[in-house]
Amino acid sequence: MTIATIVAITAGLVGLAGIAVMSRLRTLRAMVMLVVVVAILATVSGVVTGILTMSIEGPARDTVLVVIAVGGIVGLAAAFFAARRVVAESRRLAEAVQASDYTAPRGLPVELRRIATSLEESYARERALEGARRELVAWVSHDLRTPLAGLRAMVEALEDGVVTDPVTVERYHAQIRIQVEQLTGMVNDLFELSRIHAGALRLSRTRIGLADLVADTVDSTEPLARAKGIRLSASAEPIPVEADAGALGRALGNLVVNAIRFTPSDSAVTLRAFGQDDNAILVVDDGCGGIPEADLPRLFDVAFRGESARTPSDDGGAGLGLAIAQGIVEAHDGTIGVVNDGAGCRFEIRLPVCRDPA
Fold this sequence. Notes:
This protein is α+β, with helices and mostly antiparallel strands.
């Protein structure tokens, strides 16, 4: 057996022993120290084995052993300070994570800095979602209070006999029915949004044509447009997409209804569908007068009510139409956006085109 083989076997046994010990360690400091100790022991065992095999004696042997001893001491010292730095930075990161307002510590090593940055982004998203939830609860509580107060006043008036005139009684009954329908719509919107955020939205995708989807949307929104004096027009190419017709129709309908609500009378709302590269594009153009640029990035946020948030509740809606539309579109692997264009806004839905043969 050659000297090289003997040295390799000896160093390998030391390495295997080190791996076995490391599997039982639970601290970074001990692991870093063990790595250096194993490296030093593997080197020392190899050198000593070589010296004994070659029968090296005298000053040459002593010199080699001294060099190895000094190198081992220096290596252990370096390992100690490295382990101390890793443990200190890890502890600093752990303390920052446990803080109520997490901010990534500065000066961390590259690997820990990546972890810290990812955590900071996650905490920021969590804070934003928590803020949106609180804002939504406050908003819904406020919007529920008004119709409920009206319902209570009318019911008490009817029960106490304060209102007995048949015409007034009939009007109260009609108002109660309208308020109940508005509250039902609000609850339905909240339920739909909760399903979207919980990932519980179930889509029954089939191959549909955008022309049919646009025609159905126009048919359902035409009465609202006519009542407000809005000219509603549409044009669509027969582009196939893989989608849930009911869900996607609701998303598109929400955009059209919002456009009609915010467009002045005797103006126009246009709905278009066409293909572009590998995308199917749905566009809703209105004449709302534009939205402040600062509001555009948050327009689809839950509970956002900017100056022109386009999600009013004065008609009884829950004001969640755009957030629901975004959730539905993203569930179809699409994107939705809005830009100011001329005298109004342009909402655009992009969906992947269905390339499979019918």
